[in-house]
Write a structure and sequence with these properties.
Helices cover 44% and strands 26% of the residues. The protein has 26 helices and 27 strands. Helix 12 runs antiparallel to helix 13 and helix 15 crosses helix 16. The chain is of the alpha+beta class. 28% of the residues are buried. The chain starts with a helix and ends with a helix. The chain has an 8-stranded mixed barrel with strand order 18-19-21-22-23-24-25-26, surrounded by 4 helices. Strands 2-1-5-4-3 form a 5-stranded antiparallel beta sheet. A hairpin with a 5-residue loop joins strand 9 and strand 10. The chain has 4 domains: 110 residues, PAS domain (Beta-Lactamase); 108 residues, PAS domain (Beta-Lactamase); 163 residues, Alpha-Beta Plaits, CATH 3.30.70; 246 residues, TIM Barrel (Alpha-Beta Barrel). Ligand C2E binds next to strand 19, helix 16, helix 17 and strand 23.
Length: 683
């Protein structure tokens, strides 16, 4: 059959259209066998056109869309454009793909279905974009972070639910408005300037700021703003993410306060004070100015606290802070360093007259009565003063020197101020030097034990002596134990030194006993520090005595009243262990402390030593004589022997004999002397 040229042209056109269409085109027979597919379809299926020959559509691509095809075949009505998801079983990497279908039945002359033509357009990209958008909008609406979208003119386009919850504003109240309705006024103009500069250059800003909600309540926010640009690169929208950090800020604030502010007085604490002092020193250095540091320490605060209780003590401290502030009429930093220590830093140029006037004003204010509820309390204050740059170039030096000056004020009798001076520094330094030298003194053999005889008044016999330590310093010469024993106590070196003295005394008493002297006893001073030291020395001492072949009663332990006053369980145990072993115990410096009869009995003391201050006056002061007599009578009633210390004159000795005293010790008989000299004295 010959076709005319027009028909051929039409066919060619149709063929061209079919082959080159970007839509996928397929012709099936009524049993869904492929008749023809175009290149676009083969490409979409990633197959060749030849691969479809003789194949059935639903064999090749099993799918529930067959139901729709069947429906079209049944009704002979076209099915127009529906989107279906489809998975290529043998190409799992493609995932779920989406297609818009159009299915048209082509009927023959009898009205029966001859072909089915369907066209397909893949819409996977669009579907995915739609899905992403849907999810984004879900996130946007349900996010717990508040979000706000503004347009290029910085007008609010949209907000989410969380935004409403955070700020109290509803969409209709803010749409079209400028977000600056949230500004709290707490942020400077410069702050917003930098924010906009960042937004205009990088499109992004994030940071923390204070805004306010609809009620005007300040809210701390972490804010992140991003910019969405259009194709032309112009700002289309800005998206702001707001998280509420008010609670965190409050916590941070609280933590800062706890670290920097004294909760009782509201003043800066030590930590903040040191930081501020450092800053002030740096500023003073820059501007060539001075600073004055006043370190104020209350004199009797501990007693008030103990007597009236901590609550009253606290009230007093608050009042002290208030009074100090009232004495300072210029810009100054006042801080509480802790306990009953306060500082004032004066940061203007000051001459000494002005500085001491401020210190005196504070002292005068603090001696005035404190009314604590129904109670009245009196305190005083000692103030140390140090100045930058004269007395120190950094916070540490300045504080240390003010502290030394404060101690000097205390030593001078309290209730006064003291300016730091070079001499003060020297005193402290020589103490420090002694302390250092003390460390090596034992090894270097610089110690020597002297002995002072103790005479029995009834017989005039000497069968007792006190061991007294001497330090021959290589540079300073002989240093008094009154000076170095307290240092050795503070550093704990007394434990080792005391042990050495004890061994020396044991050695000496052994020599004396071997010289056929009556049963000799040597007393050794034992510091409370030795008793309170965790290491129990009693065992070792008793063993050492036994190993030396000496009875325990050849050694007497001299202790002070202070040890008995706050004797802990451990201290009492050690004392009783000595007693049980037969070592005698003497109570030294009797009468200077809080003497208590109860203690004498409880700890089974053997001797009391009446302090030199009473003995030295018995020949001139009737009161002291009466006191000595009373002590002797009382001691004898309790079964204790009495030793009078510091007897320097025969008059004193005679009065003591008359009073019934048992032993005397003092320069009248002999000064403390080295061992060999002592031996000559007693043999
Ligand atoms: P203390 O135990 O009260 O010793 C008596 C002090 O009075 C000794 O001072 C002694 O030399 C001095 N003295 C004795 N008779 C007279 C006198 O007639 N007139 C005057 N003015 N003074 C007299 P020293 O030797 O300077 O010792 C001072 C303190 O150092 C002792 O006071 C004692 O508490 C302590 N001490 C000495 N040696 C030791 C020791 O080995 N260990 C411990 N823990 N402390 C010791
Ligand atoms: Ca003594
Ligand atoms: Ca004494």
């Amino acid at each position: 059959m010959a076709a005319d040229s027009e028909t051929i042209r039409q066919l060619k056109l149709a063929e061209t259209f079919f082959n080159h269409s970007v839509s996928c085109l397929v012709i099936l027979d009524r049993d869904y066998n492929f008749i023809r597919v175009n290149q676009a379809y083969a490409d979409a299926c990633r197959l060749k056109i030849a691969d479809f020959e003789g194949r059935n559509h639903f064999e090749l691509f099993p799918s529930d869309t067959k139901l729709i095809f069947d429906e079209v075949v049944r009704t002979k009505q076209p099915f127009v454009t529906f989107t279906r998801a489809f998975e290529f079983i043998d190409q799992p990497e493609r995932g779920i793909t989406y297609w818009d279908w159009t299915l048209v039945p082509v009927l023959d002359a009898n009205g029966d279905i001859e072909y089915l033509v369907f066209s397909l357009v893949e819409v996977t990209e669009r579907k995915r974009a739609e899905e992403a958008l849907r999810i984004a909008s879900l996130v946007y609406q349900h996010s717990s972070d508040a979000m706000m979208v503004t347009d290029a003119e910085n007008k609010i386009l949209a907000i989410n639910e969380a935004f409403t919850q955070l700020t109290g504003y509803r969409v209709e109240e803010v749409r079209g408005k400028n977000p600056n309705l949230l500004q709290s006024g707490r942020q400077s103009a410069g702050f917003y300037q930098t924010m906009w500069q960042a937004l205009n250059t990088s499109g992004h800003w994030d940071g923390e700021l204070w805004d306010k909600d609809k009620n005007g309540t300040a809210i701390a926010l972490r804010l992140a703003i991003n910019t969405v640009y259009d194709e032309a690169g112009k700002v289309a929208q800005r998206v702001a993410l707001l998280s509420d950090i008010t609670e965190k800020k409050r916590q941070d604030d609280l933590i800062w306060k706890q670290a920097n502010i004294d909760s009782l007085t509201g003043l800066p604490n030590r930590h903040m004070f040191i930081n501020q002092l450092r800053e002030q020193i740096a500023l003073a250095k820059e501007s060539g100015r001075c600073l004055t540091l006043l370190l104020i320490d209350l004199d009797q605060f501990k007693e008030i606290n103990d007597a009236l209780g901590h609550a009253k003590g606290d009230t007093l401290l608050v009042e002290v802070a208030r009074r100090i502030a009232a004495c300072v009429h210029e810009p100054a930093t006042i801080a509480r360093l802790g306990g009953d220590e306060f500082t004032v830093v004066l940061s203007d140029n000051h001459d000494n007259a002005h500085v001491t006037a401020v210190a005196q004003a504070i002292i005068d204010k603090l001696v005035q009565v404190f009314q604590l509820g129904i109670e009245r309390a009196y305190i005083s204050a000692s103030i140390g003063i140090a100045q930058y740059p004269g007395d120190g170039h950094n916070a540490g030096d300045l504080l240390r020197h003010a502290d030394q000056a404060m101690y000097a004020a205390k030593n001078a009798g309290r209730n006064r101020y003291c300016l730091f001076t070079g001499a003060l520094q020297e005193a402290v330094q020589s103490r420090m030097r002694l302390n250092n030298d003390l460390r090596d003194a034992l090894k270097a053999g610089e110690f020597q034990v002297y002995y002072q005889p103790i005479v029995e008044l009834a017989t005039g016999a000497i069968h007792k002596a006190e061991a007294l330590l001497r330090w021959h310093h290589p540079v300073f010469g002989m240093i008094s134990p009154a000076e170095f024993i307290p240092l050795a106590e503070t550093s704990g070196m007394i434990v080792e030194i005391g042990e050495w003295v004890f061994r020396q005394a044991v050695e000496q008493v052994k020599r004396l006993r071997s010289m056929h002297l009556p049963p000799f006893k040597i007393s050794v001073n034992v510091s409370p520090v030795q008793f309170r030291h965790e290491h129990d020395f009693t065992e070792a001492w008793l063993e050492h005595l036994a190993a030396s072949g000496l009875p325990a009663n050849s050694i007497v332990i001299e202790i002070t009243e202070g040890l008995l006053l706050d004797a802990t369980e451990g201290v009492a145990d050690k004392l009783l262990r000595f007693r049980d072993a037969g070592v005698h115990v003497a109570l030294d410096d009797f009468g200077t402390g809080y003497s208590s009869l109860a203690y004498l009995k409880k700890f089974d003391i053997d001797y009391i030593k009446i302090d030199r201050v009473f003995v030295s006056n018995i020949d001139v002061d009737a009161n002291d004589l009466t006191l000595c007599e009373a002590i002797i009578v009382m001691a004898h009633k309790l079964g204790l022997a009495v030793i009078a210390e510091g007897v320097e004159t025969t008059a004193q000795r005679d009065l003591l004999v008359a009073a019934g005293c048992d032993f005397v010790q003092g320069y009248l008989i002999s000064q403390p002397v080295p061992a060999r000299q002592f031996e000559k004295l007693v043999i």
